[in-house]
């Protein structure tokens, strides 16, 4: 059973691969250097790769959030970075990861929990 207040959880194993499933939320910003003041055209290329991955994701003004197994999330970040870097651009990546074994569907659950707490006040 999942306990939000526990420091540790059982690590589920993917029955097909036998690998541990480490649920991961990532906040990533990928952008080139030296391309001028407006980066949206380049950011859109990286976000396109993330969206095509099939992993749950959402983009806000500063980051794109991604959820999935740690290996899958890191592969998508690599692929999105490569989209710009392979064009010859020096590419900066800001990445924050929250790994939480045993949990799933946290992309929206975290915000919903905060909203719930705020409504109680």
Automatic annotation (TrEMBL):
InterPro entries, per database record: MTH1187/YkoF-like, Thiamine_BP, UPF0045_domain
Superkingdom per UniProt: Bacteria
Recorded GO CC terms: cytosol
Record domain Thiamine-binding protein: where: 26-114
Gene3D superfamilies membership: 3.30.70.930
UniProt xrefs under Pfam families: Thiamine_BP (PF01910)
SUPFAM superfamilies for the chain: MTH1187/YkoF-like
PANTHER family from the UniProt entry: UPF0045 PROTEIN ECM15
Family per record: Belongs to the UPF0045 family.
Protein name: Thiamine-binding protein domain-containing protein
Organism the protein comes from: Bifidobacterium subtile
């Amino acid at each position: 059973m999942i306990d939000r207040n526990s420091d540790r959880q059982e690590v589920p194993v993917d029955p097909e691969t036998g690998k541990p499933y480490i649920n991961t939320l990532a906040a990533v910003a990928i952008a080139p250097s030296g391309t001028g003041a407006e980066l949206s055209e380049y950011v859109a290329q990286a976000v396109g790769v993330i969206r095509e991955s099939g992993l749950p994701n959402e983009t806000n003004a500063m980051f794109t959030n991604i959820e999935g197994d740690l290996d899958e999330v890191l592969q998508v970040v690599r692929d999105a970075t490569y989209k710009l870097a392979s064009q010859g651009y020096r590419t900066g990546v800001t990445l924050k990861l929250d790994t939480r074994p045993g949990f799933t569907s946290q992309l929206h659950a975290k915000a919903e929990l905060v909203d719930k707490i705020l409504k109680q006040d």
